[in-house]
Amino acid sequence: xxxxxxxxxxxxxxxxTEHRLANGLRVVLxxxxxxxxxxxxxxxxxxxxxxVPGRTGLAHLFEHLMFQGSAQVPGNGHFELxxxxxxxxxxxxxxxxxxxxxxxxxxxxxxxLWLEADRMGSLLTALDEExxxxxxxxxxxxxxxxxxxxxxxxxxxxxxxxxxxEGHPYHHTPIGxxxxxxxxxxxxxxxxxxxYYAPNNAVLAxxxxxxxxxxxAWAEKYFGSIPGHxxxxxxxxxxxxxxxxxxxxxxxxxxxxxxxxxxAYRLPEDGGRACDAADLALTVLGGGESSRLHNRLVxxxxxxxxxxxxxxxxxxxxxxxxxxxxxSAGAEVSAIEAAVDDELARFAAEGxxxxxxxxxxxxxxxxxxxxxxxxxxxxxxxxxYAVLFGDPQLALTxxxxxxxxxxxxxxxVAAARLRPDNRAVLVYEPVEGAESAESADNxxxxxxxxxxxxxxxxxxxxxxx
Length: 465
Prior knowledge:
13 strands; alpha+beta; 17 helices
């Protein structure tokens, strides 16, 4: 077991060390004595992009199965033991990874590590047809409740399929299709576990009020004997041309509360300056009530009750820019779209003002620091950078990289990418008898609608329990 030297303080004085067990498990430790809590976060390098055609949704279905019991923790025991010890827990699946996490009172850290190791090492002994059918039904019901039976519920799924072509690893979202969920067999699930749920395909981050030496000893004790697995296939290539080449458009007449214009743009993949510049561009254009689109559509034109633009960062494929505008009563989508195009063209020609740039950088800085401020959020970011970019230390310097972006870089990415020939568009028209747009106005004002960046993150991430 070796480890790297502790780097100089970064990210507000936060530090992290990385260690590797003999079986390939990477362990990242970050000591923080401010409060007597500890977070455990385990990222497996598997998401919906690793799935094969005909078996979409398997990564998310398997995440649910990880809460169904393991060799020494039957049934719902994982939840019961963590919550009984005063902790909280869950798991999520995205395009690019599956994660599991607990936040515990510091003196209960060993319990969380034992629980995660037990299911990594022994889940197959407890996995049977009954638990498979149980969770298959849960996931199918989740699909109905979150996608199929709610207004605008399939928008993200439709736009994703339009931006990433048939056969592309990101063409389908983590929820999967009903037909594929029905087709998944117990043997499919077992093979999925054997292939991906191995220590050499995972990163374990532990953050908080910890004794690093003792914590590393526990990691070795509980995870060290789990054998690695070398049979993992690399994910399919997700590279695509920078530009779609032609606008793709769909008109949907559904039972929705208001007309809506939604669009998705191909933007630079995560990990470079261009993605940070795109994040700043979308923040200026649609990140909150001081943004250009909110000021134009909601305040000035009063053609929309909500207008936002957010970025879903992706590391293995072009990132996704998500535009979401809900129309005011009586407003025409064509007028809204003309105004959006006008604002985007003006921004591409002029770029952000100094004030807009400063405000957008402050906004992203605050969001990053909020994530790093909690032990759970920091553990998740350390895992993210370790799994997707090979280096957990990058989590601690991400804020600085956003602050180094220039207005010219923001303008360039907007001019290159925020074009009509680089987007997929959905236009929603309410059918007769649907809820009136006035009631949609009221709901928007009450704050019940998520912003587009948050909506995209939620849509691209399926929760466990």
